[in-house]
Specification:
The protein is α+β, with helices and mostly antiparallel strands and 157 residues long. It is 18% helix and 27% strand. The chain is flat. The model has no long low-confidence stretch (mean pLDDT 83).
Length: 157
């Protein structure tokens, strides 16, 4: 089993109302730790973001990171309630893992180093080794529009 010297946590959540700032990220100190709040989409202003990521580094153990992440998740739920923002920070655990990328295929083709891991897309708390070997893959959003032919609504005489 591989051991790591440091862990990081990601708390990914959805907000009902975007934050009123044009900043792409904010840093806050919570319970003695610096937490960076940013959009899930890199460089997107927080005012346009419906998915936020709270990122915190430097935990000695995976358990410390997970405990802090669960406390942070509860605190964000409470803050969202008080501010009437509407926050969905997921449930406990990592049972909602979604991955759209197959790391074995990328590693086999030489696109991805063998020691690089791809982070799962977790809605809630995610704890990972803080060793610089994690790749966060975020796919773009798609929006489609379907239109009907107007002739069916109009009679032409």
């Amino acid at each position: 089993m591989e051991t790591h010297n440091s862990f990081r946590l990601w708390l990914k959540l959805r907000v009902g109302k975007a934050l009123a700032t044009e900043e792409a990220s904010l840093s806050v100190t919570l319970a003695g730790r610096e937490v960076t709040i940013s959009s899930e989409r890199q460089s997107q202003p927080l005012s346009e973001a419906s998915w936020l990521v709270f990122d915190c580094h430097g935990f000695a153990t995976e358990e410390d990171a997970r405990d802090y992440g669960e406390e942070l998740r509860r605190a964000v739920h409470l803050a969202g309630l008080c501010a009437r923002v509407g926050v969905d920070a997921g449930d406990r655990g990592e049972n909602r893992t979604v991955s759209y990328v197959n790391p074995e295929v990328l590693q086999g083709s030489g696109v991805l180093d063998l020691d690089t891991r791809i982070a799962p897309d977790i809605h809630g708390v995610l704890v990972l080794p803080d060793d610089g070997k994690t790749l966060f893959v975020r796919l773009g959003q798609a929006k489609g529009t379907v239109r009907s032919n107007a002739d069916g609504f109009c009679s032409r005489s």
